[in-house]
Every structure is written in C-alpha cells, then in structure tokens.
Amino acid sequence: MKILFSFFTVVFLVLLVFAGATTGNKYVLFLFGVIIPYAAFATFLLGFIYRVVQWGRSPVPFRIPTTCGQQQSFPWIKQNKIENPSTTMGVIVRMALEVFLFRSLFRNLKTELRDGPKLSYGSDKWLWLAGLAFHWSFLIILIRHYRFFIGEVPSVIHLIESLDSFLQVGVPLVYITDAVILAAVTFLFLRRVYIPQVNYISLAADYFPLFLILGIAISGVLMRYFIKVHIVGVKELAMGLISLNFMAPAKNLQEIGVIFYIHLFLISVLFAYFPFSKLMHMGGVFLSPTRNLSNNSRMVRHINPWNYPVHVHTYEEYEEDFRDKMKAAGLPVEKE
Amino acid sequence: MATKLPKPDELAKIDFTPPETGWMDTPVEIKPGMFCWGAKAKNLRAVEFPNARDWSPAEEDWKLPGEWEGTVLEAMADRLSKYRSFKLFMDICVRCGACADKCHFFIGSGDPKNMPVLRAELMRSVYRKYFTTPGKVLGKLAGARELTYDVLKEWWYYFYQCTECRRCSVFCPYGIDTAEITMMGREFTNLLGLNTDWIAGPVANCYMKGNHLGLEPHTIKSSIEFFLDDIETVTGIKIEPTFNRKGAEILFVTPSGDLFADPGTYTAMGYLMLFHELGLDYTWSTYASEGGNFGYFTSNEMAKRLNSKIYAEAKRLGVKWIIGGECGHMWRVLNQYMDTWNGPADFLEVPKSPITGTVFENAKSTKMVHITEFTADLIKNGKLKLDPSRNDHLKVTYHDSCNTARGMGLLEEPRYVIKSVCNNFYEMPENTIREQTFCCGSGTGLNASENMDLRMKGGFPRANAVKYVRDKHGVNMLANICAIDRATLKASMEYWVPDVTVCGTHELVANALVMKGEKERTQDLRLETLPGKEGN
To answer: Considering the domain boundaries, does residue B38 fall inside one?
Structure first.
C-alpha cells in the first residue's frame, strides 16, 4: 500500500508533466521549464535554511557525545582521538569520516541467532556500500550538471567527466555514476521490500524519494543515451535560469523535448519536497550532538542556557531528620 | 513474581517475524513479566511528583489526570525547544534499519517495537501529528497518529523496555540516540504519575535519606562496620574508616548497592582495604551516600536534584576532590551532566593523587575521579604490592558498562587494573565489548523482580557472549564496574550461564593486594578458602 501509493504518486507526476509538455503550449512549457524550477529551488533553499535554523534554536543543554573509543586519561593510555575526541580537531575528523565515509554505518553488523542458542555478529557492509555509492554518485552527477549552467566548462568538470567515463564504452561514453546510482537505488528499494524488519518500519515517506530519484535517474539516462533532446536549448534554459534572466530561455522551449521536462519536473519535485522530509538528514547530520561534540565535559564545564535552580533536600534538613540517630551512632553533626 | 519464568531453552526460541498487521494497527499488549509495578503514591509525594496515587499497569484504568493529552503535548513542545537532540532525532531518521538488530531487547524478544527505530517512531508518529505540517495534513500516510490512551500505554510499555544503553547510537549514521527519546518518554509519563515503583522508591529514598536503598546514617555506618569484621577475619587487619569527616582530603561516593547485597559488598570491602593500605585521607558521607542516580530515569530535574548532594557535601566537608566508585549510569551522569547541572565546583581543587602525585587533568573541572583511574595510576606507578596468583583460580572476563563505555570511554583503565591483579583474563567477542558492549538487560531502573521475563530477554546477548568465553576458555568470573551489573548479571548468569560468578573490579584488587601487616591469606573476601590453602 505504502509502496503503491508512492509509486503511483511518481507515475502521476510523470503523466502530469508529460501531458503538459506534449501540448507544446509555450505557457505550459514556461511553467514547467521556468516557474516550477524557480519555485522549487526557492522552496528548497528557504525551507532548508528554515529547518536548520529551527534546529539551531533549540540549545544543546548537555554534552552527550556517544563515545566509541578510549577516553583521554593518562599519557600511557592511548586515547582514541577520533572516536572519542576531546578536542575540536578530533571532532572535525570524526564528523568528516561520518559525512564523507559513513563511519558509523561501516560498523554495521548482522545479528543471527543459531542453535545452541548462539548469537553471532557477522560483518554486513552492504547497506554501507549501497548508501555510499548512492550518495557519492548523486553528488558527482550533480557536479557534472554544472556544465549546463556555465558558458565555458571549467577543466575540473572535464576531469570529473573523463574519470567518470574512463571505461570508454558506448556512444556517448557511459558514465559509471549513472549505472551506480541506478543499481544503488534499486538495492535500497529492494532491501526495504525484502528485509522483513526494514519493510515493517518503512513509511510512504521512505519509498517516495526512492521512486522519485529513480525517476530522475532513469529520465536522465534515457535523455543521454537513448532519446535525444535539443541540447543547445537545454543549455540556454539552464544558463537563463541561473543568470535570473527569466525571458531568455523562453525562445527554444518547444524544441527541447518532452523527456527533458519530465527530468526537470521530477528534480523540481525533489527539491521542493526536500525540506519537508527525512531528506533533511543532509543538514541534520552536522548538528547531531552525539557526534559533533568533544568528550571533555570533565575538563571544561558545559553550559546549559536554561539551567534553573531546583528544589533540593539540604544537608541541614537531612540532619534535622536524623540528628539523634547520627549522634547515637557517633557520627559528627553540625548542630548538637 | 508475576508469571513463572520460562526455561532458558524456551526463552531462547525467539520469533523475529513481524506481525501481519502494521505497527500502528497492532495495539499494545501489556504482558506480565515484561513490566514493573506502578509507583506508589507515597514515593511520588516524597519528591512532589504529579498525580500521586496507587495504580497498576495491569489494570485497564491507569487513573490519569484530566487533560492529560494537553499536559503531554505541552511538555513535548517545551522539550523540543530545550533539547536539540530531541528535535533533531524526531526529524532526521531515514529508517535505514541499521539499529534494528543492535538492541538487546529486540535480539532477546523479537518484538519489532523493541527495534530502536520503531521505539522512536512510537514517539515520532505523535510528534508528526501535532508538530509537523505533513503530519497534520496527511495523517497516517505521513506516519502520523493521534495521542490516544492506547498510544500512551504503548509509550509507557516500551519506554520502560529500553535501558538507554546507547548501543543503537553507535551504529546510527546520524548518531540518533534512542536514550534521548526514551528519556523524553519517561519525562512525559512522569508528568502523568506513570512511573514504576522500582524507580520511584529509590528516588524518594535517595532524596530523603541520601541513597537509593534508604539506608539511614547509622545503618550505613553499621553496614560498613560489618564489612570491617569480615576484612579483619580475612587479613587480620582492623580498618577504621571515617564518616562525614570535615577536613578530609577526599570524599568518596559510591552506589549504595555496594553496601547492601552480594557481590557488591565485596567490592565495597575492596575500596576499604585499598584506601586503608594507602593511608588515604578520605571520608564516606551518609548524606551523599549514593553515586547512582535513579532520578535520571524519571526526569532531568529530578536527576539534578539528587545529584546536587555530591557537590553540596564536598563543599560542606571542605574536601579537595572526589573519588567515585564503580557504577555505570553514575558515571555517565558525572561525566556528561553533573558539572553542567550543579557546577562549577570552584571550591574544589584539581584532583591530584596524594600517593603518586599524578594530576588528573581529564577531571580538572568536575574534580571527580573514577576509582579505576585512581587505581590504574597507583599500579602503573608501582605503589601497590600485588599478588595476582591469589586470583589464579579465576578465569576472568570483563563486561563494559554501557555508560562508562559509550558515555565516557573508560575502556582501558579497568582492563589494566584487572590484568594487573589477575593472571587469567579473556575478552568476550569484539562485537560485544567496549563501545559495542551489551547491556546487562536491566539498567535504567528495570532491575526489579516482577519483570524477569524482560530482564532475561534483554540480558540474553550479554549472557550469550559470556557463555562463549566460558565454553572456549573456561571463564568462571565476570568482572564489571557497575553496581547494577553486580546485582543483575548475577541473576542473568544464574539463568543463562549458571557456573559463572559476578564480581566488582575492586574485589579482585583487594584479593590480590598484599597489605602491610596482614596475616597469610587463606580466604578470599567471600570467606571462601583459597585453593591450596585448604589445610590451614
């Protein structure tokens, strides 16, 4: 049900833009080619900032890193300065490993119960591998697209493109990341369906972005390798959009090709959807207090901005309650 | 006991198949053996907690206050604005499931609502309904649901089936820490008077009498004097500790469990012997007679109220610094909360060992040192005369407490101490120790007797790893640095791995400690005859 709902939502989105783009009506094309992308990007930008600011408004009252290694203690005990950092530099390295290499996910294990009873913990890196493959290929593809938004393509983009296509197969050359992202998203989808526990916890909000991204990747692949579009028109549109020249791209909209509008519309939906969804983990990971704090709370006092005085049971009250018993037991008291 | 506990073979038949119905459509079933009794009115009244009344989770009517939904939602809005962790962890989970089989309660029960991700979703679903636009508009489709009586019961049931051990947060790619969510779940349920008596009782005791067990000042003294007699029997040495003594250099605070029941008592004897041998200028306190903090299992405020006694007493007595005994959650609180709540402890001095001169730089603000740090430093500097062969009849493994491992990183100090006092030491498999250690199964105030089913299920992964080293190396002693472990692993070992005994680390230290003027040791601290000394 959740899967079908998400799937058909994406199908509906494709049909919607297909119906619109095939009319060839210049106003409709202007809507899908200019207005919606702008609106989506603005939603993304403002929404993203809004969400991060909202998180930032809640303070971090306590220093609660999850320590995953030896603390700083004596010079003769080796501290794990990355997994249990006590300095900012350590935190930066820890966060870099988390953000770029998914350090925590790399620890993943598969727990199995065997006869005996015996529990075993096998290494299980598939989720890590697929997650890493998906995110990195997505990023590289995104960077590659920069060529559409700039007159003279910078050499770094050329370099990325040639690395990405170093297998030298197909015409045009096949980008490795295109294959990788399709495979990774498919894997992530299949594990959601077939692993009973993961299936049980999955919401429509977990399937929808997968289908959406799959739609984006497929339409992109179709456009590059199979269904030709008017590439000059695409570039004019892209450069017009980025230079905030609203009218410039309008002249060739009709020649670009329907598949491009599908691609662009799905991307627009992804951008607009982003701030309202779990995809915000992209911003959130940087703010996670169990990862981005050093474990130095015995060395430096961490301040809680809303720390307030509480009602305590004082020693004086305690002694009032027990003075006679304390004296009888020979315990010192403040008041005889 | 609520129900008869099934045999280990039966309990180990765990069904991991999720139910046919979705989790939102599977109502909670409050099963006997899986929960603790409701808090008694008198214990809630003692600490001014709301809705004090006697109640039973087994009954339909939980005697909630009127407008309880409003109370919870208001508190939720308040905590969302106070804790970035809570707000963030409500928003960024992608439900990848990496945490699922990392939880000891899920591994031991197979109940999908014990997967950390789903435990959190119990709360997130309500958060979405009342605090997010997609949740308000799309409802169930967006994973949102209303806060109903049944949902509240489900919260209560599952937030008291989490020991805040943080193992899931080690594996989460965003560091989402279920402990943060469980803590909020417990804050909210506490606002409605929905605590358990096993937590509320110790909290009330600790508030009024200074310790969880409710030991009154004279009883603390006499309990310790009782240990002194045993120490004299074993060593021939008469020890005279002091209590509430002003002007001592060091205040010593340990969980009161060490004063009450075996094998914690042997650990307490270990502290007494070590400090005596060093001639340490220290004092016990009857007012700050609790290192642990069951308030931490109710609300942030209550935890702070109980914790305040340690610094207050240190100030009153005019000590220079503080040593803390062997306890798990105590040390998470001391490391990550105490200074923030009740500091700055500017009336104390940066801890410096009077024996070795070592300055404990890593505790220069809190001024509180873990006893295994203190002892490791002594051993490293050759200040203790040790005869580890006295522990040769033991094959020892070490259980990292969740909190000292994942909320502090105290990993090598206790190992160094144990290896210095024992010749036979074996590690459990690497995925079950250090930062990946498994909870004893009964932390966060779940160590009652009426919830044995839950405790043995939750204790299964830890026990299974002990069983592994028992079978492989003949391990017969499970050492730890936690008072709750000493109480709960004893039960869990008796159930799952019957021939393994449990001890605190300083029991091992004291057994190996060669004291000045001692008689020839023929017994250990348990008054059991040492091997080879039978004839004496």
So the answer is: no
